[in-house]
Amino acid sequence: MQAINPSRVNVNGGYICLWSHWKAAPLTEEGTEPETPGTKAELQTYMPQDSDESCMCGSEKPYEECCKKEQYWWPLCPDPELEGYSLVAPQSVTFRQIDGAALRKRLMEDDRLVFTDNSENQETWSYWGETLIETPGHGIVEYGELALKHNHTLLVTVASDEQRHVLLHFLKEIAGDLLSKPVHKYAPLQVFDKRTNKTQTLPPLQWLKRPVGQTE
What we know:
It is a single chain. The strands form four sheets. Strands 7-8-11-12-6-13 form a six-stranded antiparallel β-sheet, with helices on one face. Strands 2-1-10-9 form a four-stranded antiparallel β-sheet, with no helix packed on it. The protein has three helices and 15 strands. It is about 15% helix and about 35% strand. The two termini are about 30 Å apart.
C-alpha cells in the first residue's frame, strides 16, 4: 500500500481514508472471464475538511473542536454501501466449532459475497455489499473478509465497528442457526503522531480510549 506523506498534506485540515479494493483480473486468452475475482489492493486517500463542518469521525462536533485538535491523525474507512465513514477500528470476530460444510454452502449462494481464495485449510470470501461500488482505476470496494479455517472455525475481519455491525447482521440473517458464541478482539492501530511527525502503532487498550467519535 502506498502511504500518504503527511508532510505533503494538512493533517489538521482533513482525514486519511483507508480503502480495500478488488481489481478485476484480465480476460483469458479465449476472451472469457477468469475464475478468480482479481487482486486485492489497499489504498490511502486524503479527504479535506472545513473547520466548521461536522467531524466525519461520528462525534457530531465541528471538525475544529474534534479531530483537528487531537494528537493523532485518526484514519477513517468507508461504511458498507458507502453510506458514510467511520473511524478505523481493526478487529476480528471468531466463531468456533461450526458446521463448515453447511456454512460454506450458504456463503457460496449469497451474491453479497465473492469467493476469493481456496488455500490449504482455509477458504476466504470478500464482502462487497448489496450494491457493487467500483472506484475508477482501483476496483470494487470491499467492506470485510470472512475466512473458514479447517472447516470448523469462521474468522470475520473488518476495519471498523460499523463494518462489524453490518457483517454480523448479514451472518445472522443467512446462517444464524449455524453460528456459535462469537469471540471479539480488537487489533493494534497505526496512526500518525502530529507532534513527532512519525507513524505510531497503538495497542487496542490505548486507541480505544481516544476521545473522538463513538466506539463500542
